[in-house]
Amino acid sequence: MKILIPNYCLEDSFVDNVSFTLEQMGHEVIHMGTISVTKSYSKVYRALKDIQAKIFPQLSDQEKFILETIKTTKIDMMISLTQSLDESILYECKKKGVITVSWWGDTAANMTKRGLFSEYWDFVYIKDAYATQKLKSLGINAEQLLEALNPAWHKPTHQQSNNELVIAGSFYDYRQFITKKLIEDKVELGLYGPPLPNWAYPEIKTLHTKKYITKQMKAEIFGRGLGVLNSTAMKEFDSVNCRAFEIAGCGGLHILENRKSIEDCFEPGKEVLTYDTYEGLLQILDRAKRFPDEMKKIRQAGAKRAHSDHTYEIRLKYILSKI
C-alpha cells in the first residue's frame, strides 16, 4: 500500500517507528521528512507556531501537506499519529478514496479543535479505555490500541552496570516534583530528555545530562541503570504509554505507578514492578540494590513479554487487518 503519515519524522518518535515498520512490511510510506531534536523542541519555533495559529487561523503545515499530496499522488491510506486534523481535510481525503486512520498515542486531554470527533475517520485507535468508550458512544469507529516498541533498536543489549535510576522524557510538573524528592533522598539519578522548561528546579537543571536519548543509546542507558522510572502526567489516567514497552524491550528494570491497565500488558511483580506510594518506590529501589539476581529475572521476563506481544509490527498488522 501507499501510506501517508502527515508529519515530520523525529528520530525514534511515533512517526519514525511506524514509518520504519511499515516499510519493513513492504509498504511505501510518505511523510514530511526528518526534523532535528533541536528544531522540534525549540522554544522559539514552538512559540511562533502557537502565535501563528492563534492570530492567523489557517491550515497547519501538516494539513497543507495532506492536500498537496493527495492532489498529486494516489494514496491508499493515511495514518495520522496523535494529530487533530481539520474536518475539511478529512473530507477531501474521503473524496479521493483515502482510508483515514487516526492512531492517538497521547492523553485525550491534548486534543485540539474537534479532536477525533469526526464522521470522516474510518478508524480511530486511542490508548485510553475511557476515551475509547466516549468516542464509541457517539458512533465513532474507535478501539483501544496502545503504542509499542521497535525491536530493531529497543532490545536488551546491555546488562546493569550502575545504580542510577533513569528518568527520561519531558520534565512536566509531576515528573519534576518526584525527581526533586528523589534528589533530596539521595537517590542516584540519570536524567535525560529534551531541553528543560525555564521553571525547572535548580537541582534538576544541575543534574540533567542535556541528552535526548534514542534507539541504541536508549537501549544502553535503560539496560545499564538500576531501573527506569516510568512516571506519567496528571492528565494521564488508566492507560499505558509507549515508554512502558520501550523500557521492558530494552531490558530495563521497568518501575511504574500502579494502574489497572498495566495488567493487560505485563504481569506486575514478575515482568514489571509497580508502586502505589512514594515510599513504595523507595522500597523497590532498595530491593533492586539488594537482590540483583531477582531483578535480572524480572528484566528478562519483561523483555520477553514486550517482544512477543507489544511490537509495532503486531499493532500495524492489526490495523491493516481491519481494512
Specify the structural class. alpha/beta
What does the main sheet amount to? Answer: 6 strands, parallel
Q: Radius of gyration, Cα only, in angstroms?
A: 20 Å
Number of strands: 11
Unreliable segments of 5+ consecutive residues: none
Report strand order across the widest sheet.
2-1-3-4-5-6
Our measurement of the CA-to-CA distance between the termini, rounded to an integer number of angstroms, reads 11 Å
**CATH architecture tag of the largest domain:** 3-Layer(aba) Sandwich
- Any idea how many domains? 2
Which key features would you list for this structure?
323 residues, alpha/beta, Rossmann fold, 6-stranded parallel sheet, 5-stranded parallel sheet, 13 helices, 11 strands, 42% helix
Topology:
Blueprint (H helix, E strand, L loop, with lengths): L1 E3 L9 H11 L3 E3 L6 H4 L2 H13 L5 H12 L4 E5 L5 H9 L3 E6 L18 E4 L2 H9 L4 E3 L20 E4 L4 H12 L4 E4 L9 H6 L7 H10 L2 E4 L11 H8 L4 E4 L15 E3 L2 H13 L1 H18 L2 H10 L2
Parallel strand pairs: 1-2, 1-3, 3-4, 4-5, 5-6, 7-8, 7-9, 9-10, 10-11
